[in-house]
């Protein structure tokens, strides 16, 4: 029995729902840490195993981050921004990094995050696909049989995937703004935000792409004549298994670790063409939300 299977069995089996756990009794100190702000959404950043590149991208929003914090978000959890020791209830949890299957405290933090959050957003390739951590074990050469790290959707349900390494600051900012409009906006704003988030929500429900390889990209995009030679797949490959030759990507099968990064970041792999017609309206909505009052 694999390590992941044994952990799932210990959590109640693959086919059973995880038993709900009651949140721990609040202490007076914990109650002081929660500051209710009715017009904002409660957002937190949960860091598991990764290089912290995603949180660096988050801080790279610069002035936009201050706007988000001033008008839309109560940042209630995060090792670098909020001094809070337990995972509180959140509207949106941004989870960065793969989960270490040998770290019981980390597994419990992930379960608590799922139970305490309305939307769980996996940011970055490590959280979405495991990325290079999928086949690694500390201090050893990467081998496919290793299973110390797994994408978070292997253990809990995830609502939104942002599968890039690292996501752009604009993409993280737009996801936060759209989540705010989805939860607090007017009916029209909720509809538009839902359409913007839909491709990334669909991606979270598609376990196929987490096991995608360069061969998948070859079959689904390149051989279909959809590749435009942008080179995003080669740039995203964490093990340099893809090179650009004569304007087209060429993969080395022996180096591919099946992390899915190339497939997830290809603009032609899961692109929602229906969204193109509403691109201008969506950009106006985001620009309006970020404009100074």
In short:
The chain is α/β, with parallel strands linked by helices and 293 residues long.
Range of strand content = 5-15%
> Mean pLDDT, as a whole number?
81
Backbone CA Rg: 20 Å
Total E-strand runs: 9
Described by strand count, sense and barrel closure, the largest sheet is: 5 strands, parallel
Strand order across the largest sheet: 2-1-3-5-7
Instruction: Give start-end ranges of low-pLDDT stretches.
Output: 32-37
Distance between the termini: 58 Å
Helix content: 25-40%
Structure description:
With 293 residues, the chain is of the alpha/beta class. Helices cover 39% and strands 14% of the residues. It has a 5-stranded parallel beta sheet with strand order 2-1-3-5-7, with helices on both faces. Helix 7 (169-184) packs across helix 8 (187-204). The termini are far apart. 38% of the residues are buried. The model is unreliable at 32-37 (pLDDT under 50).
How do the helices and strands line up, and which of them pair or pack?
Elements lengths: L2 H8 L17 H6 L7 E7 L5 H7 L3 H9 L1 E5 L12 E7 L2 E2 L3 H13 E7 L1 H5 L19 E2 L9 E3 L6 H16 L2 H18 L9 H9 L9 H5 L5 E4 L2 E4 L9 H5 L13 H12 L3
Helix pairs in contact: 7-8
Short key terms for the protein model shown above:
293 residues; two-stranded antiparallel sheet; alpha/beta
